Amino acid sequence: MEIRHDSASIGKHHETLYFPAGDLVLAASLKNPGHADGSVLFRVHKFMLAHHSPIFNDMFALPPVDTIETYDGANLVHMPDSAEDLEGLLRVLRCLPYNRRDFDESYFLCGVLELAIKYEIDSIRDRIVGQLKAEWPADLEAWDQLEDRRQAIWKAGDSDAAAELLPEPVLSIQLARQCDARDVLLGAFYQLSWLSAWDIWDCASPDDDATFNPKARWNLLDSRDLLRIIRAREVLSFRTKADPVKMHFLGKRCSESESCNRTFRLIWEDMSSEICRTRDPLEALRILQRPSSPYTSMLCLSCCIHEKTFLRNMRKKMWDNLLSTIISIPIS
């Protein structure tokens, strides 16, 4: 027995994802219908869904049942997913190979990933995971290279291109947890640990005209993650204050102990000032570690080697401990 529906009893056609040649109509309800019709109709090709999803492929392979719902001459399926998430998934499927920057980076991306996992559409899941890992590298050297590229692009005057290299971190954390991409959390949490609470996504901050400031959707941050970030700031602050005490030990073959001790004090005063300015201890340490640092010529050769080695090891240790510092802190 076939059940037909008229247009008024189902819902509204999607403006762009209702293809007359399609052989399948998907009906889905809006999350927040407001004053609009509560259902949206998508007309697509079964082949597209079956090609990308083994779940849909198995569903379409089932023998027909006695009761078949149709609409506008095509089979009708009522989807348990929201119309907003389904729209996002269909948009991405039409644009494969998927590029995250081809779409407005809004909340729909989490819904797309959720459906990609649910319907085992690995092409979308793997693409999102790959782009997340490229945007938030877990390797310190790769993180530094990304920062160098971003700074070079920003100094060239293209702040929009610079912003793309460090996307919004809160949404990235949500996506990483959905697809179990744990490595992504490292960079995203670290960026949040030094961002100001006034650096709000889609809002201008007082310093925007002077420098490029990454932003975050602080309002979407889980309360437990916020506590992790607060504790991480305290831990990172403590380490940048406590570890420099070790620098009082000069190089093993120091030839200018008085001068080198004086220089070391200047180095850490400069580092503290840079951390206060940028709130980014890793970047502050890297600036001092560069060969162009003015302090290089103020130290004897032994202490210069000792300083560079110490700074490099300090940064590496700080980065390696970020997961335990930020993510694995017990939250009671």
UniProtKB/TrEMBL annotation:
<dbReference type="Pfam" id="PF00651">
    <property type="entry name" value="BTB"/>
</dbReference>
<protein>
    <recommendedName>
        <fullName>BTB domain-containing protein</fullName>
    </recommendedName>
</protein>
<dbReference type="InterPro" id="IPR000210">
    <property type="entry name" value="BTB/POZ_dom"/>
</dbReference>
<dbReference type="InterPro" id="IPR011333">
    <property type="entry name" value="SKP1/BTB/POZ_sf"/>
</dbReference>
<feature type="domain" description="BTB">
    <location>
        <begin position="22"/>
        <end position="94"/>
    </location>
</feature>
